[in-house]
Design a protein that fits this description.
The chain is mostly helical. The chain is 71% helix and 0% strand. Helix 7 crosses helix 9. Pfam families: BaxI_1.
Length: 269
């Protein structure tokens, strides 16, 4: 699994990566019989919904994700107007809280909410910087992000792109390679040529190619996230895991938006 939010969760993780051990137990037989009228009433009753059984449902994930996304946008808008210079604080706090939440077995709604606020501060400030340099770029990045995310969802629902072990391994290796590439680019920015703010490895036509590749990785990560959520729902995961699912989607969405913003900036530069 590419996204650590899902891969480190026993709920959303790929069962092929687990060693399942059985447990033995004892059962007790009922000490009373059920009459025919009661049996007929039980058979005629409607099936219990996921809400009634306390199990995870797609509605839970959608509601939690929409709520976190609204909080992210609201925080970003306030930061943009009031104090865009706080973006560096939001970036550091968001990174720390992101790692804490990603490696927790059980979701913590408070920590996930704080992460969303921190990311809102970061995105609001960095978006204001890009908008001042390239007017209209934020709106384009938002539309591009939504378009890529919607395309990833459509591909997943259509079944044309299947999450197989080979697909997952390719995504993990590609993301590790991109991370190493990005770190090298940052080192060059600090000690050498800045590449006009993007780093020497992200400038010009090569920078555009790398940006398109990064956007493709984020889209592939969305598909893997959707597959993990589907497994959680099908397995009857606890309802509280909707927080983990929403958090994982927000992480991927933030990454996709940043890559889209950088790609558009390189094109317009």
């Amino acid at each position: 699994m590419a996204n650590p939010v899902f891969s480190n969760s026993p709920t959303f993780g790929d069962p092929r990566d687990k060693r399942v051990s059985g447990t033995a137990g004892t059962t007790t037989a009922p000490d009373s019989t059920v009459d025919a009228a009661t049996l007929e009433q039980l058979y005629g009753a409607p099936s219990a919904t996921t809400r009634e059984t306390g199990r995870l449902s797609y509605d839970d994930v959608i509601v939690k994700t929409a709520g976190l996304l609204a909080l992210l946008i609201a925080t970003g808008a306030v930061t943009w107007v009031v104090a865009p210079g706080l973006w560096i604080i939001g970036a550091v706090v968001g990174l720390v809280l992101g790692l804490v939440n990603a490696f927790r077995r059980e979701p913590n709604p408070v920590l996930i909410t704080l992460y969303t606020v921190a990311q809102g501060v970061f995105l609001g400030g960095i978006s204001a910087f890009y908008e001042a340099r390239f007017p209209g770029i934020v709106g384009q990045a938002v539309l591009g992000t939504l378009a890529v995310a919607a395309t990833a969802l459509a591909l997943f629902r259509s079944g044309k792109v299947r999450v197989t072990p080979k697909f997952t391994r390719w995504l993990i290796l590609s993301m590790v390679g991109y991370l190493v590439f990005s770190l090298v680019n940052v080192v060059f920015m600090i000690f050498g040529n800045s590449g006009d703010g993007f780093g020497p490895l992200r400038a010009g036509g090569w920078g555009v190619a790398v940006g398109l590749f990064a956007v493709g990785l984020a889209a592939a990560s969305f598909i893997v996230d959707f597959d993990a959520i589907k497994r959680g729902v099908d397995a009857g995961a606890p309802k509280k895991m909707a927080w983990s699912a929403a958090f994982g989607l927000i992480v991927t969405l933030v990454w996709l938006y940043l890559e889209m913003l950088r790609l558009l900036a390189i094109l317009r530069n």
